[in-house]
Design brief:
alpha+beta; 4-stranded antiparallel beta sheet; 16% strand
């Protein structure tokens, strides 16, 4: 019984445990580097601890799978079938997160195939490109897009009612949604606005309050839905 549990199956390729552990250790180091890149390019309040742990583990797991598969075609198809049964039920991630996942998988694949030096070299180049690229983009394309929600009385004509204020304080404004609220006695207008860099937001809101009868106004940061995958 013990021989069946701990013995080597017939017609199985011998796997060197020492080499396997070294490969997984190298893949884990690569995962730590990728996790560090994620921390550098992600705002502190948006970092996910679970995602960081996944980035550390993923290259080692992929490398182990590649080592176990080896050149056995039947085993490869079996593992592919197992992975096909897995259903991911999570919210869509940002594009940069998905890119880091693919980077981790590629690094694990390289380590599993024995190209550890190549994996580290490519990782170093990609890490520099990703970190520098995101820092440059963050500076050059600072997000000033916001969502503006204004309540107005039902008897107020909202068409062009705030155009002069938008021209003074914003680079552009677009009316995205109009809906009735409070049993139809009020209208809620939702605008997408791009604030000017030197715009005085308080003064902007004060002038809006004078127009809408001092009803509720909400100016909030607009989520960049285009970064979701």
């Amino acid at each position: 019984m013990l021989e069946k549990l701990f013995g080597v199956p017939e017609q199985a390729e011998l796997i060197n445990i020492g080499d396997t552990l070294c490969t997984m250790l190298a893949a884990a180091v690569i995962g730590i580097i990728i996790a560090a890149v994620y921390i550098l390019i992600t705002e502190k309040n948006r970092r996910s601890f679970g995602f960081i742990i996944s980035m550390v583990m993923l290259p080692a797991v992929v490398a182990l799978v590649i080592i176990l598969v080896g050149s056995n075609v039947a085993r490869a198809f079996s593992i592919a079938g197992v992975f096909a049964l897995v259903r991911f039920r999570s919210v869509p991630g940002e594009s940069k997160d998905i890119s880091l996942v693919f980077m981790s998988m590629a690094a694990g694949l390289s380590c599993g195939l024995g190209y550890i030096t190549l994996a580290f070299c490519v990782l170093a180049v990609l890490s520099v490109i990703v970190v520098v690229g995101f820092k440059v983009v963050a500076v050059c394309f600072k997000n000033t897009g916001k969502q503006l929600r204004i309540l107005i009385p039902e008897d107020m004509n909202y068409s062009g009612a705030f155009d002069d204020l938008f021209k003074e304080y914003t680079k552009g404004a677009r009316l995205e949604k109009v809906k009735t609220t409070n049993m139809g006695t009020l209208y809620e207008l939702t605008y997408s606005v791009q604030m000017k860099t030197d715009a005085n937001e308080k003064k902007f809101l004060d002038e809006l309050r004078c127009r809408n009868g001092n009803l509720r106004i909400i100016l909030a940061v607009k989520e960049a839905n285009g970064e979701k995958l």
